[in-house]
Amino acid sequence: MATRILTRRDIERIADPDEILQAVEETFRAHGLQQTQMPPKSYLFYPRYHGDLRTMPAYIEPMGATGVKIVNVHLQNKARGFPTVMAVIVLNDPTTGYPLAIMDGTWLTALRTGAAGAIATKYLARPESRRIGFIGCGVQAETQLLMTLRVFRLQELAAFDVDEPRRNAFCAMAAERYGLRIVGSNRLQDVYTCDIITTTTPSTEPILQNEGVRPGTHINAIGADAPGKEELDPAILQRALIVVDSWEQAVHSGEINVPIDQGLITREDVYAELGEIVAGLKPGRTRPDQVTVFDSTGLAIQDIASAYVVWTKARTQAVGLEIDIVGVG
Ligand SMILES: NC(=O)c1ccc[n+]([C@@H]2O[C@H](COP(=O)([O-])OP(=O)(O)OC[C@H]3O[C@@H](n4cnc5c(N)ncnc54)[C@H](O)[C@@H]3O)[C@@H](O)[C@H]2O)c1
């Protein structure tokens, strides 16, 4: 027996976005059918360093996949020369508990987050959606776009970021790599014209205001994943069909955490968990004029499903280093 060590370079080489998208959709279905175990994330907070560390365990029974992710979010890391988010995933054998793999989870976190946004968009956006908008043009924005392009024939993109060079680089990439037409300049107003709006900032104050949001818009609220974070005007949530990835996590740390704390919305205002829609237990969008919001906090099942897909491929292709870490071999 040996534990496979997979570095970020290994993951980047073998992770196939299509395979990850499919695995994440399957795992949302399993979650909807209550075939998963996933205690809510546990957090350690480092206010002095503007950061936190989370552990995220999961078991996806139909896939036979289990393990834990350890991930940080440090808001001042750019200045320190580190990414905001870094992660390691340990994949275990559910039969014996043996650690099958220890792998970088940084790129997989971004891919699986992109996959969740894309899946929500598939079930909630209007089918004729062609224009996508971004608030925040960092790492998560990149994979939201990568994955959403796999489920929608997007043609146009508008983007806003407080860091204008970053916004411009993101738009240049979108035009060059995907042939998207860039609409407008670095202005929030341009984002309101989009069919699908994706917010991927670490903001603790609403950025997207209700007045500008058009009927029929689908919003992926990705950035809020810790208590106190929010990107949307609560009035958007008051009028929208709200879908969360997990009720427990969303109420604690998702886009709904602040408005729920303030009594502006209640549990009854949350329509469904995404898994219930993917499993066919509830319909997605039902009217073209509905505003729909997907509140993503990021689920351990997304990580473990993605890690399992990559580990399976690494085994077949003999990628990575094998070490008997626990000394049973
Ligand atoms: N839901 C999930 O599953 C999930 C997964 C990973 C990360 N996240 C969260 O997503 C957020 C972004 O992560 P990232 O890895 O892309 O970080 P990042 O640092 O790579 O990118 C964030 C971008 O947002 C911009 N920004 C910050 N404040 C802004 C504002 N008020 N208006 C416009 N732009 C603004 C920054 O300039 C930067 O370009 C973080 O809050 C992170 O915790 C969520």
What features would you describe in this structure?
This protein is 35% helix and 24% strand. The chain is an alpha/beta fold and 329 residues long. The strands form two sheets. Strands 1, 2, 3, 4, 5, 6, 7 and 16 form an eight-stranded mixed beta sheet that branches. Helix 2 crosses helix 12 (300-316). The N and C termini lie close together (5 Å). The mean pLDDT is 97. The structure holds nicotinamide-adenine-dinucleotide.
The strand count comes to 16
Overall CATH class of the largest domain: Alpha Beta
Domain count: 2
Radius of gyration: 19 Å
**What kind of sheet is the major sheet?**
8 strands, mixed
pLDDT averaged residue by residue: 97
CATH topology of the largest domain: Rossmann fold
Reconstruct the topology from this structure.
Blueprint: E1 3-6, H1 8-14, H2 17-32, E2 36-37, E3 42-46, E4 51-60, E5 65-74, H3 77-80, E6 85-92, E7 99-104, H4 106-124, E8 131-135, H5 139-148, E9 156-160, H6 164-178, E10 181-182, H7 188-191, E11 196-199, E12 218-221, H8 234-239, E13 241-244, H9 247-253, H10 257-261, E14 270-273, H11 274-278, E15 292-295, H12 300-316, E16 321-323
Parallel strand pairs: 1-7, 8-9, 8-11, 9-10, 11-12, 12-15, 13-14, 13-15
Antiparallel strand pairs: 1-16, 2-4, 3-4, 4-5, 5-6, 6-7
